[in-house]
Amino acid sequence: MPMRCSNFVFRSSTFSRRINARSGRLRVMEVNTQKLKELRRRRVLSMRELEALSGVSHNTIWRMESGRQGAHPRTVRKLAKALGVEPEEPLREE
Prior knowledge:
The chain is mostly helical and 94 residues long. It has helices at 13-23, 33-42, 47-54, 58-65, 73-83; strands spanning 3-5, 8-10. It starts with a strand and ends in an 11-residue tail after the last helix.
C-alpha cells in the first residue's frame, strides 16, 4: 500500500524503509562494503553462490556491497554464517 505524505504518494519500498528507519521502527545496520567484498572474495564466492549459501538475495548482496543499502541484523547473521565469520566482522566500526 502506498504511503501518503502531504501531497505526494511514495510507492518505493526503499524510500518507505528509510522513513521507517528514521522513525525507529526498522533497525538497519551499516555494513563495511569493502570488508564484505573481501570476505566473499576470500572464500572465492560469486554473489550468486553467496546467495545460495546464505539465503540472502543476490540483489540485496549487491546493494550492500555497493553501499546503497544497510542490513537488518538477521541478514548480517545469515551472511556471517555463510562466510564463516562472526556477525560483527562485516559491520562498519564506529
